[in-house]
Write a structure and sequence with these properties.
Length: 165
């Protein structure tokens, strides 16, 4: 009688074995680890794209300032921090409040290099100016943005006129 009671109790017993619980916990841990890794990757990609977009807008603003100045820029390189370059271009006018201060703090490590070269196109000397704006905001080689712009140089276009015969 005792053996039938024990057999009956064993057959009706439900639940999970230790190995099943361990497998479930390990699969859950593996899945969560993968999910956290993917989420971190998305966050890093978002930050990179945000900085890249900001760099493109700042470079466009600097080029617009050079173009709108009406003067042909001189040859050479100008290396400075981005805040100074934007301030010289008038970017912070009217932003003397907390928002302007927050913006200036966010670009504390950003650097800009503006390189201007003269391009000769025979028969004209100094026909074009090549202006490259390079913005760098981090240690990685991926943390930079470069844009090249061409504008008219100081050359005057003149054609030789043949004397009437």
């Amino acid at each position: 009688m005792r053996s039938t009671w024990f057999k009956k109790a064993r057959d009706e017993c439900t639940g999970f074995t230790l190995i099943e619980v361990l497998m479930a916990v390990s699969l859950l841990g593996l899945g969560l680890t993968t999910l956290i890794g993917v989420q971190t990757g998305f966050a890093n990609q978002y930050l990179r794209e945000r900085d890249l977009t900001r760099a493109a807008l700042y470079a466009q603003y600097l080029i617009s300032g050079i173009e709108g100045d009406g003067k042909v820029p001189s040859e050479g390189e100008k290396d400075s921090d981005l805040e100074s370059a934007l301030r010289d271009a008038g970017y912070f006018e009217g932003l003397d409040n907390a928002d302007g201060e927050k913006l200036r703090e966010s670009m504390a490590t950003w650097k800009v290099l503006i390189r201007t070269e003269k391009i000769d196109l025979p028969p004209m000397e100094d026909a074009l100016r090549r202006i490259e704006v390079l913005i760098n905001w981090g240690e990685s080689e991926l943390d930079n943005y470069s844009v090249v712009y061409f504008m008219r140089g100081t050359a005057k276009l003149s054609f030789p006129v043949a004397a009437p015969s």
